[in-house]
Write a structure and sequence with these properties.
The chain is of the alpha+beta class. The protein has helices spanning about 20-25, 30-35, 70-80, 140-155; strands at about 5, 15, 50, 55-60, 65, 90-95, 100-105, 125, 165-170, 170-175, 180. It is globular and about 40 Å long. The two termini are about 15 Å apart.
Length: about 190
């Protein structure tokens, strides 16, 4: 995998991505802004206390990254007619920037996912070598099915459900990285 992707925060401070728990210590007001997303659904506040197996840390101690170009997510949602923003921007982060971190993949398999309040099954986390982890070239079929089903219900839903996540324990320097719009087709 050459790159991982992270949505650009609306209120970015500095040139280093840090975990939500670190933001809480350094920028308490910014923490309040970014932790609000965990209070908008009944079970989501429990994520703030969720432990991540094998990394031996909490959910908010890691930085969550996409292992595939965000255009795949945009295109799937757009093709279904989901009302989405066209101006979402992402950092395109070279994987070399994560070499000093402890990295894992959270498989986020539909069969093992029991909701935000349940523990992450041990087998859902795999410690990885970020430089040799394979590039994802398509959305999982479970993600497409989830998008389709949730859109039919006409409810708000998660944009990254059942997509493997790269969890990076440590800070990530984003100085000089490319910033891409998720609706721009992938350049090959």
């Amino acid at each position: 995998m050459e790159y991982v992707y992270h949505m650009i925060p609306k209120k970015m401070m500095g040139e280093v991505l840090i975990s939500l728990n670190e933001i809480k210590l350094i920028h308490p007001e910014l923490y309040k802004t970014y932790s609000k997303k965990y209070s908008n659904y009944p079970e989501r506040p429990s994520l703030l206390l969720k432990s991540i197996p094998k990394l031996n840390c909490l959910w908010n101690d890691v930085i969550f990254l996409l292992p595939l170009h965000p255009y795949y997510v945009y295109e799937a949602l757009h093709s279904l007619g989901v009302s989405i923003k066209k101006d979402l921007m992402f950092y395109e982060i070279p994987t070399e920037r994560l070499m000093n971190n402890k990295n894992a993949v959270y498989f986020y398999n539909k069969e093992n996912y029991m909701g935000p309040a349940s523990e992450i099954p041990y087998e859902e986390i795999q410690i990885i070598d970020i430089l040799s982890y394979p590039k994802c070239l398509a959305l999982p079929s479970d993600t497409l099915a989830y998008f389709t089903d949730e859109h039919k219900k006409d409810v708000n839903f998660g944009m990254f459900a059942h997509i493997p996540h790269i969890l990076s324990l440590g800070n990530i320097n984003i100085k000089g990285v490319n910033m891409i719009n998720w609706c721009a087709p992938i350049q090959t």
